[in-house]
Amino acid sequence: MSELTALTDRLAALAAEDEVFVAGARVITHDSGEVAMAALLREIDSTVLERTLVFTIGDVDVAAIVAGRRLRGLFDVSGNVPGADKVVGQVLSQEDAPTLKATGALLMFLCSAANRVSVRSKPMDSFGTSADAGITAAGLAEFWDIDPDAQPAPPVIRFMTANAASLMAYMYMADNNVAKETAGNTAPLEAVWKDQAAAYRKRQKELSGKKAGGPHLTCLEGPFGPGTALAIAMAGDEVCLCTFAPDQMGALAASWQAITG
Amino acid sequence: MEHAIAEHFFDGFSEHFVETPDGPVFCRVGGEGPPLVLLHGYPQTSAMWHAVAPALARGYRVICPDLRGYGRSLKPATDPSHTPYSKRAMAGDILAVMDRFGHDRFLIGAHDRGARVAHRLAADHSDRVIALSTLDIAPTREMYRNAGSAFAHTYWHWYWLTLPHPFPETLIGADPAFFWRKKCGAGSAGLTPFVQQAMDEYLTCFADPATIHGCCEDYRAAATIDIAYDDAETAKLPMPLLALWGQNGAIEAHFDCLALWRERATDVRGWALPGGHYLAEECPQAVLAAWSPFFAEALA
User: Fold this and answer.
1) Does the pLDDT value for residue A147 go beyond 60?
2) Range of the domain at A251
């Protein structure tokens, strides 16, 4: 990323009015895996002054020493994360590939299990020496094999992935209502889709007015009797129709909020 | 009349139909944090929270149901006692929703009819309500008790809607949108508090004869069985209660709101906000400014 692009992106981020803060920390992604890693690298790339960036990845706090758009090393990792003892306090350099690799593995391990990463910026903790330059975000991306421009999957796909264990059956439609993926007993879902989806969308448009077409999740308990609830998740051209146990309704709502909120 | 279009209207909120023994309750759900349920008034829906719910969702899990008889929620058959539309029955729906989402104890913010449901819920299930804030009501029993000519002129609908079915239903049903606009636009702010998306929802739902009937039954129950429940109440509400009302509205004009609430609750505070009846839509920032410290203190 060029200096000018980095500066432009940073100014745009500072001017953004839609940033989300949780417990005082700025949420940088609601994604996991490579997308979360890419978001983390973007924060490093945007940090010019000497700072300790405390990333909250899931429920683990990772304090990273960052300066000059470079990661110098990890100052602290909360809890008992496997492998943390091998990298905390170690200065990162191109000459120490094992530490560099272990640091990437640790962050990827945490990012893979998280569905949100937030960051706090603090004055830099004492770490290494001024000669320890660290590694640029671009260098980290290359060494860790991370696509720095990785984009999140579409919201409906992320919703299905996040709730895979709760879904009893599902139909995923995209590209003008073409069924792309199905699982479980979809016969009741196909009937709903065939007979009621159009009327539902029409009613939704009447009630939602100008906001029709935005991400939307509706859960219905009851249409298939006790023990099975129906959900329809929509975003743009994507639709997921699924069944789930009613006691998972709160979890589905929280998941949808995390993805689209 | 042209209405303003809200830039954001429950963005990120999901919609749910929670099954109860009497039928489905519709609700909007958003945010993470301690649970806060918001209950709407007449003749509206959960859409009335569009200007405060997203802000609250930054710190709370906000649950906005449509009351039974209203919006997209159940409209059960009634009976001569109006029990199916009693505030106790409506409160039961709210408990079913909170049970479904796994919330044992919760905060309540409520307006108008919703605040009367909240009062009954808090009286019947004080162990489940952490704190309660009411918008622009005094307790139902005391309002009827103190009714005089001036009250009756302002609250004519408290009598007219309670006339036997199908008298008010038939007249309202002849032109529901006309009735809605005249009724809700009668205050000092006219119809200006209402954004287009909310109006679309209010008028669409109110065009349903079952909704018109359900709303009338809400008032019939309030004038009969709900009063009996209130008269039977011996204990005061134990949880903190914040009563807010509009300084341009009828509560300010006709009642000593705090004194009346102190007959029903032990820990009462409150004041008038700069608005009329539809406070959450007319002055949402003032509502949020009052609610934020109150709810935070209640949770502390």
Assistant:
1) yes
2) 155-260
Measured CA to CA, the distance from residue B52 to residue A184 in angstroms comes to 40
A257: nearest CB among B19, B31, B102: B31
Numbers of helices and strands, H then E, in chain B: 15, 8
Contact A22 B32 (CB under 8 A): yes
Q: Give chain A's domain count.
A: 2
Q: Give catalytic residue positions of B.
A: 112, 277
Distance CA B183, CA A254 (A): 37
The whole-chain average pLDDT of chain B stands at 96
Q: Quick one: pLDDT at residue B70? A: 98
Read off the pTM.
0.82
Residue A255: inside a domain, yes or no? yes
Question: A115 contacts in B (CB within 8 Å)?
Answer: none
Q: Give the closest-approach CA distance of B93 to chain A in angstroms.
A: 14
pLDDT digits (tens, 9 = 90+) for A157-214: 989 988 989 999 999 998 877 788 899 999 999 999 999 888 887 777 776 655 556 7
- Do the chains contact at B11 and A221, CB–CB below 8 Å? no
> What ipTM does this complex have?
0.88
CATH number at residue B134: 3.40.50.1820
Q: Given CB atoms, is B11 within the 8 Å cutoff of chain A?
A: yes
Long-range (24+ apart) CB contacts under 8 A made by A16-22 are: A20/A261, A20/B58, A21/A118, A21/B58, A22/A116, A22/A118, A22/B32
Q: Can you list the alpha helix ranges (DSSP code H) found in A83-124?
A: 84-87, 97-113
> Which residue does chain B place closest to A261, by CA atoms?
B12
Label residue A103 by pLDDT band (50, 70, 90). very high
CA B55/CA B60 separation, integer angstroms? 9
Looking at residue B281, its amino acid is E
Contact B16 A221 (CB under 8 A): yes
Q: Cβ-count burial of A18 within 10 angstroms (0-12 exposed, 13-18 middle, 19+ buried)? A: exposed
pLDDT in tens, B194-253: 999 999 999 999 999 999 999 999 999 999 999 999 999 999 999 999 999 999 999 999
Q: Is A249 on the interface with B (CB under 8 A)?
A: yes
- Domains: count for chain B: 1
Please indicate if any CB of chain A lies within 8 Å of the CB of B7: no
Residue with tokens 């300066």: A67
Q: Specify the pLDDT at position A42.
A: 93
Same domain, residue pair A25 and A108: yes
Q: Is A245 on the interface with B (CB under 8 A)?
A: no
The answer to whether residues A131 and A32 belong to one domain is yes
